[in-house]
Design goal:
Chains A, B: This is Transcriptional regulator, HxlR family. The structure is a homodimer of 160-residue chains. By secondary structure, chain A is of the alpha+beta class. Chain A is built from five helices and six strands. In chain A, helix 2 crosses helix 5. At the A-B interface, helix 1, helix 2, helix 5, strand 3 and strand 4 of A face helix 1, helix 2, helix 5, strand 3 and strand 4 of B. Strand 5 of chain A pairs antiparallel with strand 5 of chain B, so a sheet runs across the interface. The structure holds a DNA duplex (30 and 30 nucleotides).
DNA sequence: CCCTGTCAGTTCCCTAAGGGAACGTATCGG
DNA sequence: CCGATACGTTCCCTTAGGGAACTGACAGGG
């Protein structure tokens, strides 16, 4: 399809999308997160094309989000597990779930619930400020240029 | 490309991806969030194809994430603004930024900084539990079936 | 020892989605 | 009238996704 490269942009959203922006990637991560770690299981659970699944898994392993591990050597079998980098992406999934529950769940209610270990209650994530611990939303922040803002076109090609 | 439909899945991640899972959508939202609200500006800023931008904007408006508003009637000109639904998606962007900053920013540091209105400090989002206010991450939760979880299997199976 | 089954992919073809450029329309300013 | 601006739409080309068939490596059963 000749997709534009996101990885080179000076934007953390674009660079995150470069890693997990392909349509199936978050769902693959979700499955591995809940313990569906083998090729066959993931493929059947999602209904994803085997070809695309193989591509995505390879990409996610290359990018340090997943690890491919042998769980049987006699018939050589592998499973995929989350790295720390991948686990932190699952936080992103929790926020996606929160939005999906609020805006797309409809009458039936959320398909999945989350029980917090610390309090034992069914709950959902909320965003707080890392400094003052108060709620922090998109409406509560000013956006300022940071140190990595446009390290200039030495390596970052934004326009062809 | 004959893409599989995500919107019908009983999964809030899939349904969220159905709305903003197309590669450019988060970047379009980001631009509108920071005040780049017109077609021409967005197109030039992102380097996105005009065709795809028109498609995405239409889709996002149809799905209630954006509103198309006339800011000039004499030459009929429009701009796009976030709905509440769209603004809440920007919270998701903040979490994406956080991950991108941590794992993809490299030496140069984050390209963009966020200053929290409440405390005036440069900070980032952290995920907390909506019930007990303690930190809540993907490792801190149990995943349970919810009310909207696939009512189909009730006929085949009695109980889990 | 062959047959079947399972797992983890790979290869093939077809279709549809993204990229890019040109074109269309509406208006204003000079 | 001519150009510039803003917002798309249309066209063609390339490429990525879907789907099914195929491969390979082994295990278990008869």
């Amino acid at each position: 399809m000749q997709r534009t490269r996101f990885g080179d942009m000076a934007c953390s959203i674009a660079r995150t999308m470069d890693v997990i922006g392909e349509p199936w990637s978050p769902l693959i991560l979700r499955n591995i997160y809940v313990g569906i770690t083998r090729f066959e299981q993931i493929q059947q659970g999602l209904g994803i094309s085997r070809k695309v699944l193989a591509e995505r898994l390879r990409w996610l392993v290359e990018n340090g989000v997943l690890e491919r591990q042998e769980y049987s050597s006699r018939p050589p079998r592998h499973e995929y597990t989350l790295t720390v980098k991948g686990l932190e992406l699952c936080d992103l999934l929790l926020v996606m779930v929160r939005w999906g529950d609020r805006w797309t769940a409809g009458e039936a209610g959320p398909p999945v619930l989350y029980r917090h270990h610390a309090c034992g209650e069914i709950s959902h994530v909320e965003l707080h400020c890392s400094v003052c611990d108060q709620p922090m939303h998109a409406t509560d922040v000013d956006v300022l240029p940071g140190p990595g803002a446009e390290a200039e076109e030495t390596s970052a090609r934004t326009s062809p």
